Amino acid sequence: MTLLALITREVERLRRLRGAVVACVPVAVAAVVLVGGARLLTEGRWLTLPAALPVLVWGAAIGAAAVAAHRVRRRLAEQGSEMAVGEAIEREQGLRRGALTGWLEVRAAGGPFAGRAAEQLAARLASVADRPAPQAHRHLMRWVVVATAGLLVAVVATGISLVRDADGWMAIRHPVAAWRGTVLPPLSVLEAPGRLPRGGRARVVIAAEGRRQLRVRWRLTGAGWRDTTLRVDAGRSSVELGPVDADLVLVASDGRTTSDSVRLRVVDRPFLGDVVVRATYPAYLGRPTERLPVDAPMRLPEGTRVRVEGNASETLARVALVSGDGRRVGLRAQGLRFDGEFRPSGMAAWHWEAQGERQEIVDLPAPLEIEVVPDSAPRVAIVEPTGELTVGLEDRVGLEIV
After folding, report:
1. Which of 328, 310, 315, 329 is closest to 359 using CA atoms?
2. Eight-state DSSP code of residue 130
3. Where residue 338 falls among pLDDT bands split at 50, 70, 90?
4. Cα separation of 27 and 68, whole Å?
5. In angstroms, what CA-CA distances link 107 with 93, 100, 113?
6. Phi, psi at residue 53, to the nearest 5°?
7. With bands split at pLDDT 50, 70 and 90, how would you rate the model's confidence at 126?
8. Torsion sign across C-alpha atoms 215, 220, 225, 226
C-alpha cells in the first residue's frame, strides 16, 4: 500500500467517526429542547401562554442544534485533516517529527526525493497499515460513544414525554395551528335553554375537547360582563347561571378561540288565571245558573253541572283538572283561553294541569274544592196541631204542613 493511500484511508475512517458525532449531538440537543418545550406547554398551558411559544420552541431547538453542530465540528475539525492525521501517525508510531507531515507538504511538487521518502515511510508503516493512528481512533470512538449515549437518552426522554406530555407535544407538532387556535376541535355549546322563566337558573353545557379549563363570559341585558373560569372534565364543562331576570348572552373562550355567542331569552313565568266557575243546577230545583267563588269550598246538589273558564299567559297546548282519586277532566284549549264542563260527584279537590306550546305552566290557580250533596226523597209532615184534638161540627181547624 502506498503512503498516500494509507493516509487517505485513515483520514476517511476518522472523518466517518467525526461525522457520526456531528450527526448525533445536534439531534440529541434538539430533542432535549423539544422535550422541555413540551413540558412547558402541557396541561393546556399552551392555550394561556403567548401564542407564538410553540414556534419559538422550534426556533430554540433548531438554533441549539445548529450551535452544537458548529462547536462539535469545530472541535473535531483538525482531527480529520491530512496534516492532523499525519501528526497523529508520527506521534503514535515514533516517527521523527516532520517526517510525514513534511512529505505531505512537498508531495505535490514530486521529485525523486519525495518518492524515495514515501517508499521508506510506507515500508516503515507496513506493519500497522490497518490502523496507523490507534490513539486518535480511540479518542474519536469515545466521542462517538458519548454522543450515541446522549442521543439514546434523548430518544428515551422523548418517548416518555410523548406519553406524559401529549398535550404539549400536540402544540409542538402543529405550531402554526396552535398559534391560530385550530389544532383542537372548536368550542361549541351543547345544552342551553332558549327560553328561561324570569328569576330562573340556566344550566349551560360546553363541548371543550382537549382543554383543561375554560373562561366563560356572560352578560345580562343592561349589565356589565362577568367572567367565570370552569374546569373541563372528559371534554365537557358546565356552568349554572342565575337567577336570571333579563336576556343573557354567553361566550366561551379557551384563550385562543371563542365559541359562537349564545343568547338566552327571559320570559315571564307562564300562568293560568281569570278562572270563572258557574253552576247549572238540576231543573227540578228551579234555581238559576250562578257564579261560584273559586277560593272557597263549593257544596253543590247532585246533578249540578260545573262550567270552568279562564285565560293563560301563553298559548296553551292542553289544560285538565285532576282529582285526588285519579279522575281527570280535560278542558278545551283555544289559544290563550280554555273552557270546559263536567258533572262532579262525591267530595274532591280538583287540581290543575296545564302545558303551553313551548313549556309547562307551573303557576296554577288553587284547587277547586267541590262537595256534592246527594239527592233525597221528599218528606211531608203535619207540624200543627199536634196530638189529639176535639172539634165540633161547625168548628174550623187550621193545619201547618211542611
Report:
1. 315
2. T
3. very high
4. 9
5. 21, 10, 10
6. -60, -45
7. low
8. negative
Q: What is the pTM of this model?
A: 0.55
Beta bridge partners, 291, equal: 278
* DSSP state string for 275-307: EEEEEE--GGGTPPPEEE-TTS-EEEETT-EEE
d(CA 156, CA 150): 10
Rounded Cα–Cα distance for residues 206 and 227 (Å): 15
pLDDT, the chain, mean: 83
Residue type, 108: A
CA angle 268, 270, 276 (to 5 degrees): 130
CA-based radius of gyration for the chain: 51
Residues 6+ apart with CB under 8 A from 70: none
Q: Which amino acid is at 144?
A: V
| Residues 89/137, Cβ–Cβ less than 8 Å | no
| H helix intervals, 125-266 | 134-164, 166-173, 175-180
User: What would the grid cell of residue 37 be?
Assistant: 418545550
In whole angstroms, what is the distance from residue 45 CA to residue 40 CA?
7
Beta strands, E only, 58-98: none
Identify whether the C-beta of residue 136 lies closer than 8 Å to the C-beta of residue 85. yes
Give the amino acid at 75.
Answer: R
Is the pLDDT confidence value at 114 over 70?
Answer: no
- Three-state DSSP at 39 gives helix
Helices 166-173 and 3-41, packing angle to 10 deg = 120
Name the residue among 350, 373, 383, 267 with its Cα closest to residue 314.
267
Spatial CA neighbour of 229 closest among 197, 205, 252: 252
- CA dist 335 → 284, 313, 389 (Å): 37, 10, 72
One-letter amino acid at 399 equals L
φ and ψ of 286, to 5 deg: 65, 25
Residue 281 pLDDT > 80: yes
Query: In the 8-state DSSP scheme, what is residue 346?
Result: S
Give the pLDDT band (50/70/90) at residue 205: very high
